[in-house]
Every structure is written in structure tokens, then in C-alpha cells.
Amino acid sequence: MVSSEAAAPPRVVVVTGVSRFLGARVASRLAADPRIERVIGLDPHDPPPALTGLLTDVELIRADARAATGAIAELGAEAVVHLAITSAPDPHHGGRAAMKEQNVIGTMQLLAAAQGASRLRKLVVRSSTAAYGASFRDPAVFTEDTEPRAVPRGSFARDILDIEGYVRGFRRRRPQVDATVLRFAPFLSETAETSLTRYFAQPVVPTVLGRDARLQFVHVDDALEILHRSVVEDHPGTYNVAGAGVLSLSQAVRRAGRVAVPLPEGTLSAVASVARNVGVGEIGLDQIDLFVHGRVVDTARLVKEFGFTPRSTAAAFDDFIKGHRNGSSLTADRLAAAERAILDGIRRVRAAAAGEPVDDREAVTS
Length: 366
Fold this sequence. Notes:
By secondary structure, the protein is α/β, with parallel strands linked by helices. The protein has 14 helices and 13 strands. Helix 3 (68-75) packs parallel to helix 4 (95-115) and helix 4 (95-115) runs parallel beside helix 5.
């Protein structure tokens, strides 16, 4: 049942993570809604020039979650939209330690601030279908009530489980606040820039030998619509957000007009590690497990509650392809580095199997 008439939209909304693609667009849409009086963007970083134009009607406060306690209370926030969650470690900005500090510690501090905000009545948190993990024991389709069958290997999935655990605690302490958790499938669109879009944009796409995982995506525009409705309507609960239908990994690669290079799982892990070091890829354990086992979620609860059906997985992927018809944005040097990374990964696995030492200097010069 759609509950859009339950209460008036909040007048003051705080959005975290506005220096990023998703956060800037959510804040911009909310600021354009005449029912909302103020939208405040909370972020420790200034938005890049490409996003600045979207935020002309958003009040920007340069602060991280540690400063959220004062900001949320003083601003009289009636809704908080938490989007300051990163899906991959950035080796140039603190790596995994900084990622966990932002995702887990940042969420904990933000929720502590929200708990003390007397006027708060709505909390919306970005989560991910990575919460279900990916293993050989998975069901064919996950519902919101399905528990992970194995502890995820990937850092992002583990962070998501911690984040959702903190939200459950918040719900117990502040039951009068409507808390909405949105488990998004990987984002795609013509303009989206994520580790997954960069993966499919490469002219040569490493895949897992002997596996053809089933994948789901969600179009960014549909994700924005669901986030907007979560703020201006009342939809407490946890929801899977994905496009109907699936694409196998092989179908997605062919659809994108790329060349698949099937590699053993161990080799792909080595390739991913080397590729990250040379700056041509961001494939982590979360993505590798997804490419091995796949993940499909049920969205019946979302469609029934929101009265909105996201476009299909195939349609979202086709829109992504529109923005990459001219091929990868990789330069010739970066493509050569990618090819060397693949060859070096194979060499490492063979050397390890033979008990031979590996010279790391050879990995980036040969």
C-alpha cells in the first residue's frame, strides 16, 4: 500500500555526501521541490566543478559526520538523507582505513547526532544489495528478509552489514522516526561514473572462467526517484531497489561491444590487484564474488509500497551503453597498462603454482 498521504513533507532536509554524483543530484532534486523549505548539504569536501551548478539552491556546510551533532540539531532538521557511503577504497585517499572510517564510523556518528535531534522524523539511508553477500549457497532470489548465507569477503559488503546494524539500533531507540533503508543494486546510466561502469567501459573485460553470473542493475534516475519519494512520502522499512529481469555477465559484455577475457578466479584477483596499482581498475573482492556467484533480488515490496516500478535491468544497461558507444575513455598508455596487468596476473599465478619467486619490478616494466 502506498503511504504518500500520511504526512506533510519535511521542511528542512540534511543530505550527506553532496560532493558526489548521487548526493549532489538528490540534494538538487529536493531543493527544487517547493514543499521543502531548506536543503542543507553536509560534506567534508567541496563539490567538484562538474557538480557545483547542481547545488546553487543547496546550503553547503563543509563538515564530516563528527560535526553532524551540532549541525543537525541547530538546523532543526526534520529529515536526514545519508548518502556519504563509498563502495571502494581509494588508495590515494587513505585506502581501506579511510573507507571504513567514513562508512562505519561516520554512520555511527551521524546516527548518534540524529538520535538527539528532537525535530527529526525521517531518516533515509543508502544501502546496497551487497548486504546479502555472494556465495554458492545463495538462493535464486533474495527478499528483504533473507539473511546472508556466508560472511562477505568484500570490505564494502561488510561495511553495509555494520551500517544496517546501526540503523536497527537507531530504530529501537527512536521508534517515532520513520527509517527507510534502500538496498540498491549497482547503479548504471549514460552518465554514471562507478567502478562497475568503468569495468564495462574497458575494451578488454576480464571475467571468471567457467562462470556466467546473473546480474541486476538500477538506473540512476530511478534511484533518484525512489530517494526523493522516501523523503517526501512515508515509507519506513527496508527495500530492494533494482530493475526487473537479469543479464548474465556474458550478455552484458557482448551488449557493451567489449571483448571478454575469461580468467581463473585466482588470476582475476591478481589482475585486479595489479590493475588498481597502475590506475586502470577498481575491481575488489565484492565485484569478484558478484561475478562468480551473481545476485538477484525481489522488488515486489518496493513496487507495492512506492507505487513505482524502476525500468528493467536491460533498459538501464542499454542507457549506459549510449554513453560509451565510442569505446573506452582509456588512453593508449592506460590500455597497455591494463594488458600488462592481465599478463602479469597470469604470470603471478603460474609462478606461485611452481613455487617460484615473483619480481614485483617486472610487473610494471615488462
